[in-house]
Amino acid sequence: MGTKMKGKAILCILMAAIMVVSVLAVAMPMAVAKSNGGNFNIIEGARTQKVLIDQNLEFKGYGDDVIVARIVSGDRENVYQTDAQNRIYNVNLQTSGAFYVNYDPATKLGAAQLSVEMPDMPVELKVGTRRVESIAAGTDLKVYTGGINLYEQDRVDLVIIGPDGRIKADTINNQYFTDISVSELKVDHVLATIIR
Predict the structure, then answer these.
(1) pLDDT tens across 122-135, in order?
(2) What is the pLDDT of residues 94-115, one digit of tens each?
(3) Model pTM above 0.90
(4) 27 Cβ partners below 8 Å, 6+ apart?
């Protein structure tokens, strides 16, 4: 292999970053929002529910004209009104303070509380047990996502840059790097040989 090809192969992969395609979640545990597989996380019931910045939310069972508000010293601040379908798009709530659905100042209660967090998507790339930033052609690579706080069925893209640009699929090994569920990434996700 010539020096140019060898250098190209070694430099080949990786600026890998995970980008949220959209927040889609299915059948969440009791303490978080859930989804029916569509583009909206469903908020329903009286429990505290985790909401991530940039999610689309749909509120069910709270009546018409749902209002989400941050409560500071008993007063409503940062008030958000849902649309006609009781939806809020691209949530951009502050991550501090308590947010309530349909807060009643008289009783100081809300129909539900929202726990707002920034999405956290740590990524480590490893060959065997060694952390790497690039690999040579023909090397298997694992993606580790310990500490990720997205929902199990959120969909993400792995952005893999090779010598000829972005690699979206390895058709030889039938492996795709777009529209991957978080649950797939949490299982020591092995990226097969990408560059030959």
Answers:
(1) 878 788 788 888 77
(2) 877 789 999 998 898 899 999 8
(3) no
(4) 34, 153
Same domain as 175, residue 138:
yes
117 pLDDT more than 60: yes
Whether residues 127 and 53 share a domain: the answer is no
Helix (H) or strand (E) holding 10: helix 3-11
Per-residue pLDDT of 20-73, as tens digits, reads 333 333 323 334 466 555 588 889 999 898 888 888 999 999 998 899 999 888
Q: CA of 52: how far to CAs of 22, 33, 79, 121, 179, in Å? A: 11, 10, 17, 12, 19
Three-state SS at 79: strand
**DSSP result, 24-69:** --BS--TTB-EEBSSSSEEE-SSS-EEEETT--EEE-SS-SS-EEE
- Strand pairing class (169-170; 75-81): unpaired
Closest by Cα among 57, 81, 77 to 68: 81
Q: State the residue range of the domain holding 60.
A: 34-117
Helix (H) or strand (E) holding 127: strand 124-127
C-beta of residue 69 within 8 angstroms of C-beta of residue 78? yes
Q: Which of 101, 117, 133 is the last residue of a domain?
A: 117
